Amino acid sequence: xxxxxxxxxxxxxxxxxxxxxxxxxxxxxxxxxxxxxxxxxxxxxxxxxxxxxxxxxxxxxxxxxxxxxxxxxxxxxxxxxxxxxxxxxxxxxxxxxxxxxxxxxxxxxxxxxxxxxxxxxxxxxxxxxxxxxxxxxxxxxxxxxxxxxxxxxxxxxxxxxxxxxxxxxxxxxxxxxxxxxxxxxxxxxxxxxxxxxxxxxxxxxxxxxxxxxxxxxxxxxxxxxxxxxxxxxxxxxxxxxxxxxxxxxxxxxxxxxxxxxxxxxxxxxxxxxxxxxxxxxxxxxxxxxxxxxxxxxxxxxxxxxxxxxxxxxxxxxxxxxxxxxxxxxxxxxxxxxxxxxxxxxxxxxxxxxxxxxx
Amino acid sequence: xxxxxxxxxxxxxxxxxxxxxxxxxxxxxxxxxxxxxxxxxxxxxxxxxxxxxxxxxxxxxxxxxxxxxxxxxxxxxxxxxxxxxxxxxxxxxxxxxxxxxxxxxxxxxxxxxxxxxxxxxxxxxxxxxxxxxxxxxxxxxxxxxxxxxxxxxxxxxxxxxxxxxxxxxxxxxxxxxxxxxxxxxxxxxxxxxxxxxxxxxxxxxxxxxxxxxxxxxxxxxxxxxxxxxxxxxxxxxxxxxxxxxxxxxxxxxxxxxxxxxxxxxxxxxxxxxxxxxxxxxxxxxxxxxxxxxxxxxxxxxxxxxxxxxxxxxxxxxxxxxxxxxxxxxxxxxxxxxxxxxxxxxxxxxxxxxxxxxx
Lengths: 358, 358
Hints:
Two copies of one chain form a homodimer.
Chain A: H1 8-31, H2 46-51, E1 55-59, H3 61-69, E2 78-82, H4 97-100, H5 102-110, E3 114-119, E4 122-128, E5 136-137, H6 138-141, H7 145-158, E6 168-169, E7 177-182, E8 205-211, E9 217-221, E10 224-227, H8 235-240, H9 244-256, H10 266-278, E11 289-293, E12 308-311, E13 313-318, E14 323-327, E15 331-334, E16 339-345, E17 351-356
Parallel strand pairs in A: 1-2
Antiparallel strand pairs in A: 3-17, 4-6, 4-16, 5-15, 7-10, 7-14, 8-9, 8-13, 10-11, 11-12, 13-16, 14-15
Helix pairs in contact in A: 9-10
């Protein structure tokens, strides 16, 4: 690591801090005679979840996503403790101060000084020709891109189900978002068949989309993001937010067309920027999804009438060469030409968390 | 291909059309007693370019980028003929009608009914610790992501120059853009050392940027795009354009704050949208670059004061794990922690093309 110029001392220190924070949480629980099983990423599985009355993730937002990914029971609380406040925003975790005074959080839970929060999650159905319903776990395998594609191919040959075309409910629930896009690898065995596909780090994704059972629309873009209220703060927010700089230029142009009667000052620009960006966020408990098309390509062939919006259901037909559906950045499914995904929220899939009273 | 559900008949037809169009151009030239060497992608090299008085690319915009990539002489004209008008926009090519009546284009050239156009291009300097100045040609090698990373590593061990830290001028000139971002692969040999990096199809890029020798700013984003006037119509445009839908929402908010005195009708929204998006485009002949940060992450640590703008010089210090600088989607250079890139336009690097009179 040091040879690479990485900050080894920094990494070691953050590990030390994390370890100390984990010990604090575990000790606080055991002091209350609560039975605790401390498991690492690789040992965390559905048997452990079944054993537990509640699950506490100790890490950052990524760890919370992983913890949630194995909980399918809407009455099993999952609570996040941010043990890495320097690096993680902790959107999905308890406020940072409980990291160092976890007994305070426990007392609030005992006294009922909290309310339950149900974070809605997205479910996925897959159907069509030549589909592959086997998930590839991106965290555990830490695959290179080529191995990632090979893993999908190997699983395909083992999975008989893919011949039955009826919609398959995939064994995952997205807490943040589902992202659909080209995987960016080019497969060796198809080398000679791909004269028109340029290998690059940015390949456009080609698909058809139908929102709320509306008409199908062909799209070409850098990918499609469908998020929950929880995820509206995450990647979706970064895709859709508009910079103060851009709002200022837009309002300048509106003024030029005689449309602005107020002076165009920083205060107005700031208000409009804040309001606009805030309109991208919504409650994790609302059973609605927000879809957004990333960098839509608009030309003679491809239109993009609706590039973003709320919806109850999104259907996507892949016209991609080598694409994936990625759930919470952690689990991916092959999504190539012939596959059709249906994306929606079912409140039975919600994740139970707590909001402590302040 | 057919097994994959691809449109084999369609691909074959487009190949037939392309071949016919190429024959038309070659015949038109030979009818004028012009000596023509017809070369395919793999045979196109600097010796062929040296032999030629002019280069004609027959394909789409991608083929034009490839043709330009081996021309470093600003007095050697490169002309593009769009042989695939169904699929390629042909921004870099002659108007589509000359594809079927190339003699008409030749006549205009003979009669001087054209003007020279010099498309400015970007040059790159690389310096710092552990740098690798060997380009990886993404088109010719059609590598999988893993092979791509390995190619970089293998070249590294062979390249002695990387120990000398002075700025190296890279042997490429960007006609569209330079894109800097994480490569999205995770290397096997570093598997155990990367506890904090999640493998996913979307990994944020971390770097520092200085514009026009200004102060260094840390940024985390989905990548940095620095384009030419030519490239301002390409990927840069898709990154930065704002949808009618978004402009409408922004103006609605401005109106709510009492800022709009005109009725907010479709006409105003359309005007503002068109003006704004047009402001992203500029002449290929202007010796200035346009940089844009893709999906900047703004939080406690990372700011993003200027997310886009014109500049004469952009310097970037990589803090990335496994990133690349990609030129015109075709050539990539390793760009990891320790490397510093200087990006600028030198008019000596311009590409000579023609604009026919209409």
